[in-house]
């Protein structure tokens, strides 16, 4: 599958992204990866969305420039800048974890430009995150703020928390190296800003029909996080994926892609705002 690497300039830095099938006729899909994940998490998803242009954003890429005040809000501005550069007037938006937080900011800031929204393993705030993952994030924030270097052990620990199994060695190495190559201070800045952000008051501004997906084995987010999103977004429903972790596009790629494709292609059942198990 041919994927084009592109960049858009930002103030003092740039944003990289990877485009699959740019000339396809369907609504463009923008995909935002989790922190400690990477844009390659979406490889299987983009393969399944075969009639659509797909834009997998590298949210780590601004760290290569003179970034400042990094956080979900500035990353959301960067995503909109990419949309403008590509002439994407209206998109479908899929975001996991921190990518899901950025997606909420985009969808509540420019609601007329987001046709449909998928939020994966995320919440309107990080309050109530499960202790093990929260403690790992605390360690990353402390390391970055102290000017320390990321260790391989720390990277493997946090990457491994995102799914229930371990991918093949080459894929695993791709995931780990994406984290190790990123400036720890930048990683810490985004995590710290995400910790301070509470999007609950903004959820009512999201007009896109929204699917909230959570893996039953998610080690970071709880069912309460999903419920808060469904309660706050005017047209939303939630699905729990049995056996999947924080990033179900890696754990259960076929089932995840099927759920996403059905949501992007179909209609939200009228009045269905509750938990929809499988």
Summarize the structure in words.
The two termini are 31 Å apart. The chain has helices spanning 43-48, 72-86, 98-109, 131-145, 152-160, 169-180, 184-196, 223-232, 248-251, 253-265, and strands at residues 3-10, 13-20, 29-32, 54-58, 91-96, 114-120, 210-215, 236-241, 275-276. Helix 2 crosses helix 3, helix 4 (131-145) crosses helix 7 (184-196) and helix 5 (152-160) crosses helix 6. The chain contains 10 helices and 9 strands. By secondary structure, it is of the alpha/beta class. It has a 9-stranded mixed β-sheet, with helices on both faces. The radius of gyration is 17 Å and the shape is globular. The model is unreliable at 268-278 (pLDDT under 50).
Task: Give a summary of the structure in a few sentences.
By secondary structure, this protein is an alpha/beta fold. The chain contains ten helices and nine strands.
The number of strands is: 9
Uncertain stretches of 5 or more adjacent residues: 268-278
The global form is globular
Structural class: alpha/beta
Q: What is the tally of helical segments?
A: 10
Instruction: Note the run of SSEs as H and E.
Output: EEEHEHEHEHHHHEHEHHE
Please state how the strands of the largest beta sheet are arranged side by side. 1-2-4-3-5-6-7-8-9
Task: Please tell me the overall pLDDT.
Answer: 93
Cα distance, first to last residue? 31 Å
User: What percentage of amino acids are in beta strands?
Assistant: 15-25%
- CA radius of gyration is 17 Å
Oligomerization state: single chain
> Helicity level, as a percent range?
25-40%
Q: Give the biggest sheet.
A: 9 strands, mixed
């Amino acid at each position: 599958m041919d994927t084009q690497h592109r960049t858009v300039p930002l103030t003092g830095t740039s944003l990289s992204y990877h485009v699959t099938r740019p000339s396809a006729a369907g609504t463009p899909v923008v995909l935002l990866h989790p922190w400690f994940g990477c844009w390659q998490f979406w490889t299987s998803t983009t393969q399944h969305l075969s009639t659509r242009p797909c834009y997998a954003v590298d949210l780590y890429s601004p760290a290569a420039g003179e970034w400042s005040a990094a956080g979900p809000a500035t990353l959301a501005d960067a995503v909109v800048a990419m949309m403008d550069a590509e002439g994407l007037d209206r998109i479908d938006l899929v975001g996991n974890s921190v990518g899901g937080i950025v997606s909420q900011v985009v969808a509540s800031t420019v609601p007329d430009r987001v046709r449909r929204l998928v939020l994966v393993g995320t919440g309107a705030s990080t309050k109530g995150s499960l202790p093990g993952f929260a403690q790992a994030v605390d360690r990353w924030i402390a390391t970055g703020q102290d000017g320390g270097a990321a260790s391989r052990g720390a990277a493997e620990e946090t990457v491994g928390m995102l799914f229930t199994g371990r991918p093949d060695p080459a894929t695993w190495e791709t995931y780990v190296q994406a984290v190790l190559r990123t400036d720890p201070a930048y990683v810490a800045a985004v995590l710290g800003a995400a910790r301070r952000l509470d999007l609950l008051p903004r959820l009512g501004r999201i007009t896109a029909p929204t699917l909230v997906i959570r893996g039953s084995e998610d080690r970071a987010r709880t069912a309460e996080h999903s419920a808060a999103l469904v309660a706050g977004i005017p047209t939303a429903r939630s699905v729990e994926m049995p056996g999947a972790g924080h990033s179900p596009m890696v754990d259960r790629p076929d089932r995840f892609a099927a759920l996403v494709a059905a949501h992007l292609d179909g209609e939200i059942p009228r009045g269905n705002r509750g938990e929809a198990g499988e």
